[in-house]
Amino acid sequence: MSAQPVVVTGGAGFIGSHTCKLLRETGYQPITVDNLRTGHADAVKWGLFEKLDVRDTEGLVGLFEREQPVAVVHFAAAAYVGESVANPGLYYDNNVTGMTSLLAACARSGVSKVVFSSSCATYGIPETLPISEDTPQCPINPYGRTKLICEGMLSDFEIAHGIRSVALRYFNAAGADPSGELSERHDPETHLIPLALMAAAGTRPPLQVFGTDYPTPDGTCIRDYIHVSDLAAAHVAALRHLQAGKSSAAFNVGTGQGHSILEIAAAIKAVFGKDLPWNAAARRAGDPPTLVADTRRAAQELGFKATHSDLAQILRDAGPSFGLQAVDAVA
Predict the structure, then answer these.
(1) Catalytic: which of 28, 143, 170, 225?
(2) 93: which residues sit within 8 A by CB, 6+ positions away?
(3) What is the per-residue pLDDT across 258-275, written as a single tens digit (0 to 9) for each?
(4) pLDDT tens digits for range 149-160
(5) Fold (CATH) for 4-174+226-253
(6) Is 143 in the active site?
(7) What pLDDT does 331 receive?
(8) What DSSP element (H or E) covers 208?
(9) 110-130 burial string, b = 16+ CB within 10 Å, else e?
(10) How far apart are CA 142 and CA 85, in angstroms?
(11) 118 vs 28, 121, 331, CA distance in Å?
């Protein structure tokens, strides 16, 4: 049986490219759609590549009618919280207009299944932990608001056009392809673990730790870090959920376990034998002390559980991209 075509918007990006690799390995034919504003053409190694902006509805319709995808996995979006505050228009244009265009093209072309890259940013600052899918969604920045709007659009397009969807609310993506074929490359880099690894490698200044007086065991923020390979697996599980005829749903994608910044520093020392230089800085507005996922619904309904997201494994896989080798890997 020939591989089933799946359009992956933003497939030249960090999570999208890892998902394309796993899709190919699990019997699908990924077709990457990316405008390369932040993606990398050399990360498109599995399947076809269509240089196209998701806001180009006619271009999408032409692609869908030509390739007849069984589903769309939608990553394409702007994804920096700070940038969204400074330039909200960019985020509403890229993320909301992009979703409007994509869903219009799906409706016109008969594509009836969408897996959507959402975010735990839709929850804002939660009142209770861990964060379940039923936690009120009260985003505190334009990035989170655009993701929440897009989730609402999916519901509306299902009513009007029968497009079923799964929204995956990510926690903190980290790590890299264990084989070394793909890595995390953002410009600018804003994610904690790459910044910490670069600081430990001496390729950038000491890590800025925003707040050391939070009500956590060591005073630094706690976050739920999930390996990008596990995130890719969650997308394949979501696709299969839809192909099995199951209902639209939203799922948290995390590990259910949090790590503080100082715990990450200790783990870097243990894995690489390198100290993490860091400087204390003032808290950033809107940073919650702790964000940890309740992962039970994804386990029960998707059959998904993170299996690569031990913190040491995340660091071990990400390190080589930033010039670090695990101490037990050094000959």
Answers:
(1) 143
(2) 55
(3) 999 999 999 999 999 999
(4) 999 999 999 999
(5) Rossmann fold (3.40.50)
(6) yes
(7) 44
(8) strand 207-210
(9) ebbbbbbbbbbbbbbebeebb
(10) 6
(11) 22, 8, 42
The tally of CA atoms less than 13 A away on the side-chain side of residue 112 is 11
The SS3 of residue 307 is coil
Which two structure tokens, joined as six digits, stand for 109?
């072309």
Tokens 């998902």 correspond to: 19
The residue extents of the domains of the chain are: 4-174+226-253, 192-224+256-329
CATH homologous superfamily for the domain 192-224+256-329? UDP-galactose 4-epimerase, domain 1 (3.90.25.10)
pTM (two decimals): 0.95
Q: Give the mean pLDDT per block of 10 residues along the chain (331 residues).
A: 91 96 97 96 95 98 98 95 92 98 98 98 94 96 96 98 98 93 82 95 96 96 97 98 98 98 98 97 88 97 96 96 84 44
Residue located via tokens 């020939």: 2
